Amino acid sequence: MGSTSARRVYFDHNATTYTRREVVEKMLPFFAERFGNASSVHFFGEEAQEAIEEARENVASLIGAEPEEILFTSGGTESDNLAIRGVVKALRTEGVAPHVITSKIEHPAVIRTCQALEKEGVEVTYVGVLKDGTVDLEELEGAIRPNTLLVSIMLANNETGVIQPIEKISRMAAGVQGVGKIPVNVDDLGVDLLSVSAHKFYGPKGIGALYIRRGTRMDPIYTGGGHERGIRPGTENVPGIVGFGEAARITARELDGEMEQIGSLRNRLEQGIKSRVDAIVINGEEAKRVPNTSSVVVKGIEGEAMTLAMSLEGFAISSGSACSSGSGDPSHVLLAMGVDPKYAQGGIRISLGIINTEADIDGFLDVFPGVVERLRSMSPIAE
Ligand SMILES: *Cc1c(COP(=O)(O)O)cnc(C)c1O
């Protein structure tokens, strides 16, 4: 999607963030002069190994874990796969069909993994959500069986920002959208597993971690060398890990201030939209949400059309999630929340970040009502 505007405002931080300058600086030496393989016994290897362990401490500290409970992976998708497949593999017993519980609003990394496992004889229950976007706890409780090995629920939804009642559920959580947006502590949450991705909080892409509580059984899903305790073989992405560690360290320091700043921008945005545009719904507004995310249904317009039109105006937003947009299908998350399928196509997501300013919000509010009016006047799904 192009833009004819000189303006370039980024409102899609749940898809990815830029990498902080300090993080890039910290990574650079590990591409060139400190390029060692952490498995090597010589000083090049030792240097790389030390850098990895420092990063591991910073990531652990951000989520209240011990360093030895952090396993580096290639990102949120791999962590989700490893968590679900690795636990099912480790706990599966001969003659009993394993059972996994997840929800209808999960990221494709979880939903599609569960669907793939169903073809391998794993039974999966997809629990629904209430109107406010939180997982239906009664339904979840009723779904638990003697052969349930894992409950996999996301900490915060990537489309709506709705924070899930993980402390009340607890086995595994994909914290990809929570970590870096709200304070996260694995003990308070009571989870045994938690997926984290660096590029969602100003770290590099292609690097993430799986938190594995001490004592949790887990089989590898790849075969190879003995890296990462033999659970995740493959030469470590040292620059990525170093960047991830630095992003975690900075986030731990800055989070409170950033949450406040971003939260007040979101209020300005949502108040502004409500006062300027009629027939809109803010999804999950009644629930606890991460402070940066606004999911809005604009009745009578397709989200794709609106995303395109706003892109031409110089604003990068998304319809649904980055992972499913482009499909034109209504959002599975909004459908699960009971949004009328006709309106679920009209969902847009505005996800703010630390670079956004009041001027960005006001600029958006200046053009948004006109775009809505224009699109409504020519929309095939308008009332
Ligand atoms: C981004 C995201 C993922 C995938 O993480 P990657 O590091 O991009 O593979 C998984 N789950 C959620 C909720 C996400 O937001």
What does the model show?
With 383 residues, the protein is an alpha/beta fold. The chain is 38% helix and 14% strand. The chain has 11 helices and 12 strands. The chain has helices at residues 21-27, 43-62, 76-91, 108-118, 137-143, 186-189, 238-276, 303-312, 332-336, 341-344, 358-378; strands at residues 9-10, 70-73, 99-103, 123-127, 148-154, 172-174, 193-197, 208-212, 280-282, 293-298, 315-316, 347-351. A 7-stranded mixed sheet has the order 2-8-7-6-5-3-4, sandwiched between helices. A 3-stranded antiparallel sheet has the order 9-10-12. Helix 6 (186-189) links the parallel strand 6 and strand 7 (193-197). Helix 2 packs parallel to helix 7 (238-276). The longest helix has 39 residues, at 238-276. The protein is globular and about 65 Å long. The relative contact order is 0.17. The mean pLDDT is 94. The structure holds pyridoxal-5'-phosphate.
Keywords for this structure?
7-stranded mixed β-sheet, 3-stranded antiparallel β-sheet, 11 helices, binds pyridoxal-5'-phosphate, 12 strands, 383 residues, alpha/beta, globular
The biggest beta sheet is recorded as:
7 strands, mixed
Q: What ligands can be seen in this structure?
A: pyridoxal-5'-phosphate
**Mean pLDDT metric:** 94
Overall, the morphology is globular
Our estimate of the beta-strand percent is: 5-15%
Distance between the termini: 27 Å
- Encode the helix/strand succession as letters: EHHEHEHEHEEHEEHEEHEHHEH
Individual helix count:
11
Helix content: 25-40%
What is the β-strand count?
Answer: 12
- Sheet with most strands: strand arrangement: 2-8-7-6-5-3-4
